[in-house]
Write a structure and sequence with these properties.
This protein is mostly beta strands and about 280 residues long. It folds into two domains: about 60 residues, no CATH class; about 210 residues, Fumarylacetoacetase-like, C-terminal domain (Fumarylacetoacetate hydrolase, domain 2), CATH 3.90.850.10. The protein is about 10% helix and about 30% strand. The chain has six helices and 19 strands. The strands form three sheets. Strands 1, 2, 3, 4, 5, 6, 7, 8, 11, 12, 14 and 17 form a twelve-stranded mixed beta sheet that branches. A five-stranded mixed beta sheet has the order 9-19-18-15-16, with no helix packed on it. A hairpin with a 3-residue loop joins β18 and β19. The longest helix is centred in the C-terminal third of the chain and has 9 residues. The termini are far apart. The mean pLDDT is about 95. It binds zinc ion. The site of zinc ion (ZN) has 7 residues, from loops. The site of zinc ion has 7 residues, from loops.
Length: about 280
């Protein structure tokens, strides 16, 4: 099943059509895309029998499917080939940061540049559908509502400014968390642990990898995170980026105003985010 948000309402998405969840369920399930995660397993069970054909859907109508998560986790250096391009060693524990939720935007949201060192990171995004507290790895997927495409946009100077690197701030400017276009339930994939993903700047493909290259795969991330923080329904995890970011190119390449960043994950869809000039972030 595929879920999306149109005009701030949760919809069940079909091929070229959709149905409003609240209307199709006669009010049993809310149209509020945030509240609905509290009863996600029941929603999915109900949606199995629904044909999403209430209205014609243009993909341009879809907005961020998870507009107000309570917690957003990011995972750094989580693809083997990305760690190697960065000249690092394969880590024995994941590097975790947050993207503050105010940075989230939709599948066509603008990315304003606060500096000339802003980079792309195409990522598989996991959304939690069932409270996860100290979950074992084997039960990880059971706690996932669905998968989406994300961009972990990163300002590389601020990310590394201060006495220690502080990823959270450098990755949380407005527009730095494009998400969408839909949320796809894990059962829709033959193997949700091996999905092709990538991104392109204008026509040039910059990243192209597979989630089977993840060092800490989705079930292990859920186990490790939920050992510390209970994962709440609707929480978002940016799972890490494959090789091909701009900062590790020789010479480095960064986003420029006027470009379009396209990002995709197999079986989910694509984001198309225009890059625009933004205010410089710090004049001190
Ligand atoms: Zn990232």
């Amino acid at each position: 099943m595929r879920f999306g948000v149109v005009e701030q309402r949760l919809v069940l998405v079909g091929e070229n059509s959709a149905s409003d969840v609240e209307r199709a369920s006669d009010g049993r399930f809310s149209a509020d895309p945030t509240a609905v995660f509290e009863e996600w397993p029941k929603l999915v069970e109900w949606a199995e029998s629904i044909e999403p054909d209430e209205f014609a859907l243009d993909a341009n109508q879809l907005r961020n499917p998870v507009p107000r998560p309570r917690q957003v986790f990011g995972v750094g250096t989580n693809y083997r080939r990305h760690v190697l391009e960065a000249g690092g060693k394969i880590p024995d524990a994941p590097l975790i940061f947050t993207k503050f939720p105010s940075c989230l935007t939709g599948p066509q949201g603008q990315i304003p540049l606060p500096s000339a060192k802003v980079d792309w990171e195409a990522e598989l995004v996991v959304v939690i559908g069932l409270l996860a507290e100290r979950v074992e790895e084997k039960d990880g997927w059971r706690h996932v509502a669905g998968l989406s495409v994300g961009q972990d946009i990163s300002e590389r100077v601020l990310q590394l400014t201060g006495p220690y690197a502080q990823f959270s701030l450098g990755k949380s400017f407005p527009g730095f968390g494009p998400l969408g276009p839909v949320l796809v339930t894990p059962d829709e994939f033959d193997d949700p642990d091996d999905l092709e993903l990538g991104c392109a700047v204008d026509e040039q493909v910059m990243q192209h990898g597979r989630t089977s290259d993840l060092i800490f795969a989705v079930p292990e991330l859920i186990a490790r995170l939920s050992a510390v923080c209970p994962l709440l329904p609707g929480d978002v995890i940016f799972t890490g980026t494959p090789e091909g970011v701009g900062a590790f190119r020789s010479p480095p390449v960064f986003l420029r105003p006027g470009q379009t960043l396209t990002s995709w994950v197999q079986g989910i869809g694509e984001l198309r985010n225009p890059v625009v000039a933004g205010p410089d972030y710090w004049k001190g």
